[in-house]
Amino acid sequence: MRSELADEEDMRELILEFVMELPGRSAQMRALTSADSRESLRAMAHQLKGAGGGYGYPAITQAAARLEHRILSQSSETELLESLQTLIGCCDAAVAGIASDPTVTLAP
Amino acid sequence: MSDVTSAPSRVLLVDDDRSIQRLTAAFLAPLRLDLKLANCGAEALEMLQRQRPDLILLDHEMPGESGLEVLQRIREAPELHDVPVIFVTGSTSGDIISQCFERGANDYIQKPLRRPELIARVRSVLERQQMLGKLWRAARLDGLTGLPNRLLMQETLSASLEHARHNAQHRFAVLFLDFDRFKLVNDSLGHDVGDMLLREIGQRLRLNLRNSDAISRDGAGTTLSRIGGDEFVILLDDIADLDAAEAVARRLLGVLNEPYQIGKHTISSTASIGVVCSHEGYASADEMLRDADIAMYEAKSRGKGCFVTFDPAMQQAVIERHEIERDLRSAVGTDQIHLVYQPIFSLEDGTVRGVEALARWDHPTKGPIQPDVFIPIAEETQLIVPLGERILDEACRQLSQWLANGHESIEYISVNVSRAQLKSKDFARQVVGMVRRHGLQTRQLQVEVTESMIMERPDAAVELLDELRAAGVRLAMDDFGTGYSSLSCLHRFPFDVIKIDRSFVSKLNTERTEFVSLVHAIVNLAYNLGMDCVAEGVESREQIAVLLTVDCMLGQGYLLGEPARADSGLLERWRLGLTEKATLCA
What we know:
The complex is a heterodimer of chains A (108) and B (586).
Chain A: H1 12-30, H2 38-52, H3 58-72, H4 77-99
Helix pairs in contact in A: 1-4, 2-3, 3-4
Chain B: E1 10-14, H1 18-28, E2 34-38, H2 41-50, E3 55-59, H3 67-76, E4 85-89, H4 94-102, E5 107-110, H5 115-140, H6 150-166, E6 172-179, H7 182-189, H8 191-208, E7 222-228, E8 231-237, H9 242-257, E9 260-262, E10 265-267, E11 271-277, H10 285-301, E12 307-309, H11 312-331, E13 337-346, E14 352-363, E15 367-369, H12 371-380, H13 384-404, E16 412-416, H14 419-423, H15 427-437, E17 445-450, H16 451-456, H17 458-470, E18 474-480, H18 486-489, E19 497-500, H19 502-505, H20 513-528, E20 532-535, H21 541-549, E21 554-555, H22 570-585
């Protein structure tokens, strides 16, 4: 998955920085699936909902919004985990997109 | 974002997500803002205590206080209530959006952020702020000097008073400064020069006061303002004591005394400063300005070029002045104000040549009030117009009566006129009309003006004096020698007589040869210009003897005849004095 803003010169470095943080966020969210950490998980989803589209990843915003909504509407555990998995999938796709983008030079 | 004249706009972004902080900064980079970041409400509020931004971008969902709660606290803070806030929220809930507007947000932006929208909304709010800033400056800054004007000074002073009410230790002082010869500069050299002088004065004051930053409202310290004309007011905030304020006043007097080079003119003048300290317990800015103004007037009346610290007794003097003004209104036209007459003698043969009419006011409760007290008040209040007319009328009537009673040796009656009368375009015509009405010749009236009066507007004065002279009225320059330009400009004015000021005459004795020489020079100059001389304030026989040796043939003074009412025996008493005077002159 490639950012919609990837061709904007002044955005490249910012997008890279954002995407490099995604695996960390995914790992944190995976660790927050117990019932008593719902609010923390929701807060993280809320942040990604706000940030994703801004960096050119509307899919991240959509997936994060669905997860936040399911937490707020107290959906079933299964539905919730499914939304989380979708969101993490989007994040992974963004990372993969960067790695395969010939225009992006990854810092060593 | 900034225009050519101002610093970059200060924007505070409050958001806990660093990826949003970075993104916002990148999106807004083209506006060249001074962007500050806060990670939560508490940090934002702490930063706002230190510096007021031009705009706050406030995220809703943050750890700790929510954006809505922070917004409420911003609006409740007196110094921040009007800072624009754009609410930023990832929520699509209509409820939160309504609440953000209810609590005073100016606009809102939905996350995820989009660059064009963010720029457009931020720019729109900042442009409005800049417009408001321009209006604010136009209403509060003096266009000529760029300094705060009266309104801003009043606001700043009110804020200092408010601060002092809550902080007993807080002291501040107000300096009220007036340039002593500004009116003369404006009248004689023109308004352009006057304006340039005001700018120069403003600049000198600015350079000599620390922290004179009153335009930004967040800095305590010194505020310099021009509140009108040549009046400057300085607020010295947070000073240790009165001594500190007086030290500043003393320093400024020195700075302002230095000559000013304005174009081709070199202008020298002093300034007068009134000082007032906050500990007097003032309730309003206007009260404090009023007292500083009173102290400044006191500095003027103590000889100018000095500073005076306000004392409540000075206010009593102002109250008395107001009473005099009020009573003068009812006194004009009654016999409370009447004329006394003083003879002008020939020092050679002791005959009365002319008579000077002088106004006196017998106040019903305060007793006699001197002309140097009530004439300036009459001038300021324009009461001088009816008063001057009445004096002229009464003087002409009296001479007419004396002549009818056979005292034909009196050649003229002499009347002092005021600044206000000199400014009246109709004055010459009025004078001539008055003289004729009493059946007199114009040569039988002498008009006395002082040098300082004509030097205010020399060109206009020459015109009026020429007009009076052409009509035949005698003209006398009063108090000659007390002004600064006497000798140099005497030839410009069509005087018949110059009256040598008493300050010269009083020093005439055989041991003070320098004054004898000076008076001799004045007499010679007058004769060469075809003018007569009258010595004022003659009080001793020795003075008469000296005056005769320098060819000054006319004199008046207490020795020769005190000013007195025109009762039936007055001329007889003057005549009876002849014998004695004859022996004096021998």
